[in-house]
Amino acid sequence: PAAGGGSLWVFIHQQLGQLSFLFRSGGTALNSAQSKFFQQLLLSFKVPEIERQVRRALRAGKCAVIGLQSTGEAADKAAQARSEAAGSSSQASLVSPAREAVEGLLAALSKQAAAAGGGAAPASFNAFRDEVIEKLDKLDLPPSALDALIDYFGAEHVAEMTGRSKRMLKASGGSGYVLCSRAERGTPASRINLAERKRFQSGEKLIAILSDAGATGVSLHADKNEANQRRRVHIVPELGWSASKVVQQFGRTHRTNQLLPPEYVLLTCEAAGEALTGSAVARKLEGLGALTKGDKMAGRGETGGLGTNLETKAGGQALSSVIAELRQNKWRQEGGAALEQGKLVLDDGVHDLVINSGTVKQFLNRLQLVSLTSQLEVLKAFVSKIKKEDTATAQQLAATTVTVKSEEVVFSNAQNAAESVTVREIECDHSCDWKDALAQAGDQSGFRGFWCPRGDRDTRNVFLVLPIDQHRGRLCLPRKRWGPTHWLADIAQKCAKYSLTTPQHTEGMKRVWECNLATARRDGTHLEKFALLNGSVFTIWPNLREAFDPRFNPDDRSTWHLGGDQMYHRRGGRAAPTFEPNVRIQLLTTSEGEKLGGIRMSLFKPLKHAPRARWSEHCNRKNADPGLMRTLAQSGLGAESIICRKHACLEPSHSDVDKLRKSLEKDTRRARS
Questions:
Q1: Quick check: 430 pLDDT over 70?
Q2: Cβ–Cβ under 8 Å, residues 532 and 586
Q3: Are strands 158-161 and 207-210 parallel, antiparallel or unpaired?
Q4: Which SS3 state, helix, strand or coil, does residue 64 take?
Q5: DSSP bridge partners of 412
Q6: What is the rounded CA–CA span in Å between residue 138 and residue 365?
Q7: Facing residues of 466 across strands?
Q8: 441: closest CA among 476, 399, 469?
Q9: What is the spatial distance between Cα 284 and Cα 299, in angstroms, rounded to a whole number?
Q10: Which of 52, 247, 316, 386 is the most exposed place for a label (fewest CB within 10 A)?
């Protein structure tokens, strides 16, 4: 159904593009119906897992609470109305809300088409509608999750606490389903939820299903004063668009005076539709965290990690990068022995829709039209790019060994001993020996194995390819175990794979790998060095901002800030705007098992030209044309060459850590004076 549903919506998008009279107000209805279609489809796919979790809870002597956000009542009523109009009072099967989303869209568009056609829809639209209905009939769309669960467990075993007044039940004769009122004899529909709650809390029913409307003010916890004191297993198969309502539903089974706390089971799947809903909830939870706790990061834990806000600045940058790759046909499989059958991951119809996405929300909504396998690959690439761009998100360091070389307190408050800032110098060894490389290579099937550039076997540029998915692979080098990511199609086109089929081939590859590793260790290219800053960093934030500012030069007083939180760079009598650093949060675990985290700072000291008095006779700047030097300076291109390096016209300048120390020393001298 998912693959057929994607093709159906691609057809709808393409046909509506030709019916221009529907575009004035049909875009919003189209996006809403498409989102609802896939949301209901994903929820219905989780029904077998929900049933399994409920059976497991009952066997363990617990009771189950299933929290839904939608009931499908509107779809039931619409289907019943059509059946009655056709002269039938029952349905042959349970109603599919996904199908009703499409038919509701057609009904709304029919009214617009009739209005545009002067009272009657044009023949072109009627043909379009008939073809959509025909495609719908061929799809085996699943029924409503709520109706399917009640039909499976039986209404006599399920306490339904929802906002709907009617529900689908099996007909008395056992053939078909009829829409029945939830009201009971002596109990009106307005109080049926209270009656169902009483049955659940007394232990008469051990399965409860509640919706957004039915969850308000209901307590379903293991109350010490109630007969049913079994532990609650709260199953959450879907997130709603409202973050506050999601949090409220979590609290239905976790309240004061409870004998046992509940167990939460959050059901999610890797799909663009799930990422879209989770992103919306996470974004709103960040707003709640900023409002209630003064920290937008405080609300990220409320969904148990089920949702991640993708609609951020980093998300926009990642979207631009993915769309650029799609425009360049980067997702086409071609070339190489493993990719002889060229296949386009996104066919033409979906490709045009996806690359024209203007926002992350629109991109995720349209990505649902892709087949699930391709959808996961594009989504995985999109999320990985967000992680690279989002420097505010803490990154875990991966290395062979991590060592703390030195530790220094660069700031301390004499009045408050707890207010201090520490800088640790970290050294990481990223090398990969032959034994580890051979273990990672495994059976060396497909792209996995050792490669080198074509026609360049004697240069010993050997690397190990570890596929991530069908399109991308991570490189492993002797000097860097976790290397960069490359497209497998590019590797197959430009490189050749070694075949370690004999002991002689293996021994030869071992010699090449160990030789490259020895060279890397001799030159130190396998090492990574940086500083980790932690402690009361906000106390010295103006100094930290100054250290990261590339315009700040401790040796040039004209680049010093005026003091306080103001940060200026004076040139020509004007002040540049305040510099805001883009800090990177780094997490790591040392080889001794100590967990550290903080702001990552560079220890690299870039080369700069020495003062004119120390320029050599062959200095590149000294002999260059002044006009050329001025042009290079304005364009940001350096005029230094190997001549200046050879004759020591260049000298190391200050690293970020050095600039931080100088800034703190400058403030200390100012305070004393």
A1: yes
A2: yes
A3: parallel
A4: strand
A5: 420
A6: 23
A7: 474
A8: 476
A9: 9
A10: 52
- The type of residue at 83 is S
Q: How far apart are CA 324 and CA 331, in angstroms?
A: 11
What interhelical angle do 26-45 and 47-59 show, nearest 10?
40
Reported confidence tier of residue 484, pLDDT bands at 50, 70, 90:
confident
What the block records as the tokens of 244 is 């506050």
Tell me how many degrees the CA angle 18-23-29 measures, rounded to the nearest 5: 120
Residue 456 has pLDDT above 90, yes or no: no
pLDDT at 7 over 50: yes
C-beta separation of 498 from 449 below 8 A: yes
Q: How far apart are CA 395 and CA 379, in angstroms?
A: 20
Predicted TM-score (pTM) of the model is 0.61
Alpha-carbon distance values, 223 to 231, 256, 319 (Å) = 10, 8, 48
C-alpha span between 669 and 573 (Å, rounded):
25
CA distance 50 to 43: 10
Contact between 532 and 525 (Cβ < 8 Å): no
Query: Is 536 in a helix, a strand, or coil?
Result: coil
Taking only Cα atoms into account, the Rg of the chain, rounded to an integer number of angstroms, comes to: 32
Residues linked to residue 476 through DSSP beta bridges, in sequence order: 464
- Measured CA distances, 630 to 288, 339, 633 (Å): 53, 51, 5
Contacts of 227 (CB under 8 A, 6+ apart): 201, 202, 203
Q: Residue 369 corresponds to which tokens in the numbers above?
A: 């039209």
pLDDT per residue as tens digits for the range 214-253: 667 788 999 999 999 999 999 988 876 666 677 777 888 8
Token pair 């790759």 is found at 325
Alpha helices in 394-487 (DSSP H): 434-441
Which residue matches tokens 């991640």?
A: 308
DSSP secondary-structure letter at 231?
P
C-alpha 431/C-alpha 481 separation (Å) is 6
Q: And the tokens for 207? A: 């399965």
DSSP string, 70-125: ---HHHHHHHHHHHHHTT-SSBSS---HHHHHHHHHHHHHHHHHHHHTTSS--HHH
Collapsing DSSP to helix, strand or coil, 155 comes out as: coil
Tell me how far apart the alpha carbons of residues 528 and 317 are, in angstroms, rounded to a whole number. Answer: 27
How many Cβ atoms from other residues are within 10 Å of residue 195's Cβ? 16
User: In degrees rounded to 5, what are phi and psi of residue 307?
Assistant: -125, 145
